[in-house]
Amino acid sequence: MLVLLVVLTVVVVAYAGVMDAPLLWDDVPLLDHPSIAQLRPLWEYLSVPFWDMSSRGNVEPLFYRPLTTLSLALDAHWHGRNPTGFHLTNLALHVVNVSLVFFLARRLQASVLAAGAGALIWGVLPRLAECVSWIAGRTDELGALGVLAALLIWRRGSMTRVCIASAAAAIGMLGKEMAIAAAFALAVGELWPRPSRGAWMRALVPLATLVSFVTLRTAVVGHLAGPALEGVTPSGRVLTVFESVGRYVWMTLDVWHPATQIGVVGGSCMRFVVFGVVALLAAGVLVGRYARRMDGTWALLIVAGVVPVLLVIHAVPLPWMVVACDRLMYLPWAILAVAAAAGASRWKLVGWRRLAGAAGVSGFILSLVLATRARTAVFADEVEFWTDALETTPSNNWLPTFCVNELYARGGLYRESLSVLLALEGRAPQPIPTDTRPLVARALGRLGRYEEAYRIRREIEVAKRTPGERLDEALAALHVFDLARASELAEQARRELPQYERAKRIESSIAEVRRLRKLLSESPPSGLEGEIVRARLDTLAGRGPDAEQAWSTLLARPDLPAGVADEGFAVVADIGSRDALRRALKAYSVRPDARRELIVAAKDRLAFADRLQREWPRVVRALVRLRRETH
């Protein structure tokens, strides 16, 4: 137990920086889901899709992971929106999984030191930092927890053990679908190499568990669609499978260089395609040579490690555009660590070889710890995370560019935001690709180029619009006070998704804009009251530059009522440009009735904007590199 305690201590030290990590990437929309934001009765989670973004305009749920949803809901109940609590749970789950790897290696006759080394190496792999440091990466931890527990519980020939192990596998499946590997593994463990009648009866238990899970999942979310392979030719799909295999094998050899985005579907990298073909041929040779020598335990272990990989090599369509992901190897590398620990225990090193081996393993582990701490620091800084992703992404993967654009927009650096989007022009077959037009329109609206933004919105093909895109056009129509068109689009979105709260909010804004415009045309208030009404009108219409200018002017007036000053400053702090916010903060902070929490929030946003401004040269260099690689 002392060895395990040392292992877990090193793992915790390696991931200590995770407690400072913010909500990142998919974390925000995920935690906004009603089933997570508000704790519900336990049984309801069995009927809720995991990634159901219908409240945000996405009508197709993708995954069924009720245990993950419930765990996030419990964290939200206990910790609110404080990301530290969520990261603490992720780290605790990883520590438990490291312990399971240790005990599973011991069960396969690994020595204490070999089991400890295997568990520690797996526990501090830099490529697995995504699972621990990213809240949404919890899915892989929960899925692996069920699989590892099932393998540890299982004993060949024991119906009781098979039933308990199948229950653990079911728990893993409710965490993430890849845990179906446990059901196949338990069945193979009983049947390999010569099944008896009793073995068939025991194998039916995990298989029945698998069928039950698939039935439940299908009833809730249906089949899994894979938009990433739309438009890819059959030969391109085959190349993608080979490339995916090649990348995962290479990632196993190079664990020191994790990446947020790895490859892109349809843009095959031939060296990894060749590597994948060679790896598959080598695997076939090894299976043919050693398959008959394996007992049920080793067959079970291999199936548990191979099935999760088979699920993510794009043999079936997957709902993401990258070829490979670090986090998807969480379970396969755990199984590999167990097998390596068991195999290493057979080596009998003595004398200087033993010392050299210990020194080599220690140096290897130290390099992993340092790399993991560095990667964790990247996850602890949202600006660094997306800048790093932009610097390392393939030129035909636009996701990091889009996310960097959103960062700069959130910081009030709207010109830089638009520049990021327009930099895609050199990487695309046309000046403004279809995929980027909505984002370009949004950026133009933030800069006050309302007519231009509205024109781009109207050019988007109507049949392809989602409810969310209809509302984006409704906002563009509202910017130019085309209230009839804005009302029509908002109503269409609400009819398609009656629970769409954003549609209701926009309809409310349209009604209020109509009321204020009528007021200004029929009996316009004068003086300060009139200025306030016009500022509110611009705010409700989403005319950011006009609103920030109006409120900044009002904040400079000493006779502005306290409540109205708070309202105006909150608007500028939320949507204002960096320069406008700086001016508004200077005017608001000298007021005797200024609210401290508003000032603190504004200073935080300014600090965020200043940080983005400092990183701008890196972003420009990355965009130039991406454009150059395209040509």
Write the element-wise H/E pattern from the N-terminal end onward.
HHHHHHHHHHHHHHHHHHHHHHHHHHHHH
- Main sheet summary: none
Which blocks of ≥5 consecutive residues have pLDDT under 50?
428-434
> How much β-strand is present in the residues?
under 5%
Distance between the termini: 57 Å
- Number of helical elements: 29
Class by SSE composition: mainly alpha
Cα-atom Rg, whole angstroms? 28 Å
Helix content: 55-70%
- Mean pLDDT, rounded to whole units? 86
* Total DSSP E strands: 0
Shape: elongated
Draw up the topology in text.
Layout: H1 2-14, H2 27-31, H3 34-37, H4 66-79, H5 83-107, H6 112-123, H7 129-133, H8 138-153, H9 159-175, H10 180-191, H11 197-221, H12 234-253, H13 270-290, H14 296-310, H15 330-344, H16 352-379, H17 382-392, H18 399-410, H19 414-422, H20 437-446, H21 450-459, H22 467-479, H23 483-496, H24 501-522, H25 527-540, H26 544-555, H27 562-575, H28 578-589, H29 596-630
Structure write-up:
With 631 residues, the protein is mainly α. The chain has a domain at 2-379. It is 69% helix and 0% strand. It contains 29 helices and no strands. It has helices spanning 2-14, 27-31, 34-37, 66-79, 83-107, 112-123, 129-133, 138-153, 159-175, 180-191, 197-221, 234-253, 270-290, 296-310, 330-344, 352-379, 382-392, 399-410, 414-422, 437-446, 450-459, 467-479, 483-496, 501-522, 527-540, 544-555, 562-575, 578-589, 596-630. Helix 1 packs parallel to helix 6 (112-123), helix 20 (437-446) runs antiparallel to helix 21 and helix 26 (544-555) packs parallel to helix 28. The protein is elongated, with a radius of gyration of 28 Å. 45% of the residues are buried.
